[in-house]
Amino acid sequence: MAKNEISIGVVSDTHGMLSDALLAxxxxxxxxxxxxxxxxTSNYDSLCKIAPLYACLGNNDGRYLYGPHVGKITRFVxxxxxxxxxxxxxxxxxxxxxxxxxxxxxxxFVEHTKSNVLxxxxxxxxxxxxxxxxxxxxxxxSEGKIISADIVLLD
Length: 155
What we know:
This protein is mainly beta.
């Protein structure tokens, strides 16, 4: 990576399980974004020890306390870009961000809206619902630009 590039590991729907392959992949990043259904305070704490973590609540996270900064929608600025993370794609306000992350379906995709907003669902490393198998995502940004956005296949 170039000097000013920031690497962000993107994950969703871990459902209380962090595989060795996922942990190894996430450890290669500067930050982690989790789009909900963490389902474990100890997993949340483990992810926070790997890299700074931005997360939102999923439909199965209601009984877990991750802290006041983890809500249904989480907004932040990273790498000069406005991010929004919500478990449900339909709740994302893509007109107010540059990068939108969702989860819930366990089906990975990367696309751009007509207004050039990057939308990613990293799929699920725990319970994938496609033939691809377990996945997460990786986004690299630098000085207000998206360098790359990829779905990562996990072994």
